Amino acid sequence: MALRQLVRARPLLARPAIAPRSAFLAPRLSASFTSTPKRLDVPPQAYQIPPSEGPIPPKNQKPKPSFSARASKFAKTFGRVTLVVLLTATGAFIYVTQSQNSPPDQLPVDTKKPTLVVLGSGWGATSFLKSLDTEEFNVVVISPRNYFLFTPLLPSVTVGTLEPRSIIQPTRYITRHKKRKVDVYEAEAQEVDPVKKTVTFQDLSDVRGAAGSVTIPYDYLVYAVGCENQTFGIKGVNEHACFLKELSDADKIRTKLLDCIETAAFRDQPQDEVDRLMHMVVVGGGPTGVEYAGELHDFLIDDLKKWYPEVAERLRITLIEALPNVLPAFSKQLIQYTESTFAENKIDVLTRTMVKDVKESAVVVQDANKQIREIPYGLLVWATGNTSREITRDLMSKLSSVQTQRRGLLVDDYLNLLGAEGVYAVGDCTATSYAPTAQVASQQGIYLAGIFQKLGQKAKFERQLSELRATAAAPEEIEATVKKLNRAAKLTPFHYSHQGSLAYIGSEKAIADLPLFNGNVASGGGAAMLFWRSAYVSTLYSVRNRTLVLADWLKVKIFGR
């Protein structure tokens, strides 16, 4: 017992030297019969561990790897996972792009199917076409342009941030992926006859053939011609101002902007003429005007100061708005943030200022104090709003008994045009309680595609029901088809869901006004700019557009505009 106590009292890390067995035999025997333990005569050096030896690890336990070994193992694993992800993403990207560039064979035109004519290729018409099932219809698309333009990024094209081809999607890219063949005509609709159910259109391109005006019948008509620029009848706007609505407008602004800069840098140019040429005026404080002013400021800071230092400091930007503040659709907090950002960027904002006349080199305005004055300019961009097209006004005059709203066409809750059977209207050409925005038009197009999906199902079930009754089918089968027909006949009215408002304000900043539960979340700054970019990239219609836009942004960061 005493020997056990002595052993327990030893240090845990000590490993005594082992003495011969005979040396321990007598003490062990004597300790069994005596009550007083005898102390073993073991020198203290026997309990010390040699420096070369360490604690003896337990059996079957591997030594713990060092930090460098663990780091090397993690790097190898991470590299392998990264390689697998990159190869998978590259393969998926190639597969998707190649499949999109190789459209399948389509069903031919079926004369037994109803004819569906779509006028326009904007947000409403393109969203409708993208979501439409063409199996039950013969679809005809008529539009002056054979592509869809992503208008929210159009201001970026004016200063070279994005290339024009990056934000357009050919209409045939969408129609060629449909089940049944879709006819696409690059032409301008001249007249719609809601009584005879006909559409007259004409080729107005620079290169024309022998065919002139063409009239075709329709069973259904989707009217999505959009609007044209609102000038309010102000003299000189059409002659001297640049609009910002079409791709050709952005190219015109881009060309004229560089012409103003080069002319200002011309030898022996008078100083007052340099100031005029380097003064860019934007009329309209909505998202389009604000975003163009922001893009123009970025062009000044990032590029103009590098390549035109002799005139860069003379560049001035003025934003004119007739209302008390810019961006009236946004919250007050974001309006103040935008105005303060513009003040920091030395962008002059003239609110409560109305344009009275536009001259070749100056714009005449009436300021908040009712004073008339002239503002010299080199470039004038007009972004004030929209008005109805001539074909829309002509259609309204034919339905004057029910079309009493001058702002646009009146439709019911199902987007049916009032007073015209089989005609539906979407987008900016309508006069609804919603704002004339791309978001509204896009949701209307998707909703209308669902309506035609049910119309197609209804026609299919009606044919099936006629065949079942003609062949004296079982009552259960007829009853099941009748139930499907009744479900297809039930339509729900259109309901707009606001997803928020976004705008870029320059200096790598944006503002976002987003709905959250019963309120709104207002945000501005760099984080909002990242959200603005991600939201627009995700909204683009194809992988091609997303890739080109991301590549353009990257090129600007590396090489400039």
From TrEMBL:
Region feature (Disordered): 36-67
Domain FAD/NAD(P)-binding: 116-445
Top-level EC class: oxidoreductase
Leader sequence segment: none
Gene3D superfamilies: 3.50.50.100
Keyword Oxidoreductase: yes
Pfam families in alphabetical order: NDH2_C (PF22366), Pyr_redox_2 (PF07992)
Keyword Oxidoreductase: yes
EC number: 1.6.5.9
InterPro entries, per database record: FAD/NAD-bd_sf, FAD/NAD-binding_dom, NDH-2, NDH2-like_C
Catalytic activity: a ubiquinone + NADH + H(+) = a ubiquinol + NAD(+); a quinone + NADH + H(+) = a quinol + NAD(+)
GO CC annotations on file: mitochondrion
UniProt keyword list: FAD, Flavoprotein, Membrane, NAD, Oxidoreductase, Transit peptide, Transmembrane, Transmembrane helix
GO MF annotations, alphabetized: NADH dehydrogenase (quinone) (non-electrogenic) activity
Transmembrane segments: 77-96
Location of the External alternative NADH-ubiquinone oxidoreductase-like C-terminal domain: 498-561
Entry protein name: NADH:ubiquinone reductase (non-electrogenic)
Species the sequence originates in: Kwoniella pini CBS 10737
